[in-house]
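Changelog-adjacent note: as of this version, every example in the card shows the full chain rather than a window. The one below runs 426 residues end to end.
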Amino acid sequence: MTQSKIDKSLQSIKLLIIDFLNSKTEETGKRILYFEHQGLGGLHLNYEEFLQYRKCLRDLVESSVKADDLSLRTVERGFQEALLKALNPDNCSISDDSRINRILENLKQKLTAKRTPYRCFIPVCGIKEKGLPFSIGQVEFAVFDDSLVDRFKEIVEKHKIQRDFKWEELKEDIDRSFYKKTCSLVVVEAKDYEAAQVIAITKLRRVLDILNFFSTLVLFNLNAWTYLPGDLEPYLFETIILNENDGASYNIGSKSIGPLQELEISQIIELDKNDNIGFDYIIKLLNKNNLNKFEQALITAIQWAGRAVISSRREEAFLLYAIALESIILVDNPKTELSYRLRIRIAHLITEKPENRSEVVNIVKDLYDLRSKLVHDGKYEITDLDIDSMRSICIKCIKRLCVDPLFQEMTSPKNFSDWLENQILR
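Full-length structure tokens:
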């Protein structure tokens, strides 16, 4: 972001305001956008006005938001508030030009504020207390016990403005939603609370997806998943199917949907120590400040696979596993010859014996024929064999990339592509 860019965006907004002041009437054609702010009234925009509004907002976002440290909603609300204030003089004695300049200067100060550290406490479901506290990347998992309450109070009381709040009221909120429950702490830097929340939840979801992926590698750990409240609550799904030709014949079906048990992080750590499933390597990646493109692609693939793990709809899970494979196997060029290159590359990645590769190629081809039918027809039923095959291939590919030192030394998608092409040519 440069100062000249945001100044240019604000100048465009000023011209928009002047145009609105000069031309705004009660009846401006079909209204397609309306917004309001408490105490400032509301504003209807017709199509032409909407186009001007949209361009100014997009320019303002592009010039003021960097690295997601400012919420897009904050920028939008600030823009809307400035418009409404400028269009409502409220018997102001100063000129329109001076008044608009002052309003836009206040908006500029809000958008160019320094980044502030925020400590984000977010409840998490499905993680056993055993082994906590535990940190993965920038996320710390812990039980919100008395020591954490005292730590929270200490942080709050450092600031004079906070000391005026009634601690008892804040403590009630903690007791209701956090106390004695597993939560995550994510420290981020942002310009406002909304951006801090968005950044923190994004970082947390990435870690939860990764945990769910590695949880599937632990034996006898069926459906041990972690999730955010409201995302994935367990429930019993029941159906009654009647045979219309035989009133006495019916079927009652029921199955448990969602997590069946809590995830124990220490089990994943123990398995990784004994069998090397790549968990420690991924933790090291998450602790890095900057990932290269190949490392970022690997993390992204694990996230997609982690989402597939917890999906209750097998067709959706099938597609998510397919996306996970595509995002890493085709990381160098995902747009050309998808099916052919994917099945050839997978065969060379997960099979050592050449005589077994044709079998893997055929399996992947069949799976991607199903993927095509799902995407384009939306009606194909996925069997247990289909989902198990796709899951198995996806896990084998990702696991090898996590545990083989050869791939841990790669710094770009081109390194990976060159290795695969060399394997194929051999």
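Structural remarks: The chain has 17 helices and eight strands.
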